[in-house]
């Protein structure tokens, strides 16, 4: 099977399938100027922003039950630059994943060649260079965190490392990328990164690991067809959900010990959903499990920072309009794509 997938014949089959799929598509395959914005995967900015805000919150030692309306200009500069740099990684990931995305019928811009691989690659390079050059003027510590985040993102997507195709490593890469590097980047805005920052981030490592596992479950069939060996493929849906439930439980215990309300409530509410999904192995239940828990987690942080809430709502509205009008699908949603 592996030999078949690595052969030219497999790619020929994929090419034929792509042409068949193109002939049956119901959306316009012509490029629109706003496609370049949505190629950035702004939906993934929201979890990145969540951990940037959390890092800033803990680094500033703010009160939990309060609101922060005004943040320093440096925080907003870092948030914008970090988002652009991560979008560079997301574009490369879409290029690498174009075959499996075609099978799973998602992220249409590159799989259907609406935006060419060459154009997307140039776009990604420009985003990475601009963000790294500009952030240099904000401090060396940010340059280091940006480079580490970028290298981890590339290692996640690109061969020969390709962490996303290595079970456990794919989970850890996401956990470290969000729960540690993005978190520390937000913390660094407040001053020196202390040892306390790493202790505080451990609960987020557990939480992100649990959520990530469940995100791989709906794509198991498509990933198997494309030869991707994710943690979901490796464990199978049932065992993967058991592991994610254990990790979410540990995240709750850790949040209780640290009195981290942002982590405590989503973990507590999410546990029953994760446990139910152990027996209900449907794709719909898997999507509900990670989307509901992620939404509540983001909402907890957004309520603490109202400007984040406003930005998040704006992004979700734009995404809903775009995917409804452009591709005629219900996205973002709890049970849709």
UniProtKB/TrEMBL annotation:
InterPro entries, sorted: Prenyltransferase_related, UbiA_prenyltransferase, UbiA_sf
Chief location category: membrane
GO molecular function: transferase activity, transferring alkyl or aryl (other than methyl) groups
Keywords of this entry: Membrane, Transmembrane, Transmembrane helix
Compartments in which it is found: Membrane
Coiled coil regions in record: none
Bilayer-crossing regions: 36-58, 70-92, 122-151, 171-190, 197-217, 229-254, 261-279, 291-319
Membrane topology: Multi-pass membrane protein
One Gene Ontology term, aspect cellular component: membrane
Protein name per its UniProtKB record: Prenyltransferase
Organism name: candidate division WOR-3 bacterium
